[in-house]
Amino acid sequence: MPERSVRKVVLAYSGGLDTSVILRWLIETYGCEVIAFCADLGQGEELLTVKDKALKTGAARVFIEDLREEFVRDFVFPILRANAVYEGGYLLGTSIARPLIAQRQVDIALREGADALAHGATGKGNDQVRFELTYAALAPDLKVIAPWREWELNSRSALIAFAESHDIPVPVTAERPYSTDRNLFHISYEGGILEDPWAEPPGKMFLLTVSPEEAPDIPAEVEIDFEAGIPVAVDGKRLAPVELLERLNRLGAEHGVGRVDLVENRYVGMKSRGVYETPGGTILRVAHCALESLTLDRELLHLRDSLVPRYAEMIYYGYWFSPERMALQRLMDEAQADVTGTVRLKLYKGTVSVRGRKSPRTLYRADFATFEADAVYRQKDAEGFINLNALRLKIRALRDRRG
Asked: pTM above 0.85?
């Protein structure tokens, strides 16, 4: 049995099956007061019943905090400035939400005089690491309770039985036999029927986007303005971060943009299948890359790109508050100083393609790049350039010929 010295716990609470059971389990197991904390990151209607449900399940207090602006401005936009993508497909929508949730959970715990923090992540997944690395970085003295690593409720069916015996509503049904995680940046689906990587996700599962086949037959065009790598306007209208992402989410969703079906490598060592919808984020990433092609110096671009997989890995693994991520973020942001301009995109049946790009900080010079006659580039200079770069290859070939 766990020690019962804990007096007050702040639980990262979503109102889903796991955290609802955990709330009751903490009270019964530790005999402690439980404060439920839910971060509003754009879940929408999911939040309507959270407070009442937490109180009915036994929470002493419930905090629901609107963190949408901070989430987009200070977490989503920084990873978009870095073009972060994990294993070629995942735009890190769940990964980037966890450090913010844990950060505010710590704030509440310190303010309320709690002596412990709890989360609903399983012992098999990445989220346990993301939560607890943040706790360690921000509040190393607080005790951490991870029920999935302590209790005997080792399956979804066991949780459902516990919930039913305590009159806790069960959100997982036969119609939706998988778990979801939603915020302003994306929605993820995993578990249940998705555990077979050969099985196609059911069409009715998707909550944000229409299928590409059912998207409009007429493409849409959109223009996005950036300043120093930060998206600031859509179709010439300046928008705050949340408004901008919401607008692009709606537009992308209408045209079937942003669906990804990925088998990824979890930090704990196993592979898992995740299905994601990230409509606005997909649009922003394509636009951002297009603008960088005009404005970033070649060597800076190549250096930055070489670091993106490592940066994305840091986010995926939960090292947002680590010194290496923060140092690398400074490099990523410094590289964005000249990424200012406008990109025009076409959205059509699940695809995003670049139609044009322009920038007052462009490095593209038509007078240098033209195939027509010019007076600024001496083509003969390329001969020496090639000879010097070929010298080591010639020497090697001559050696091998003699051998």
From this structure: yes
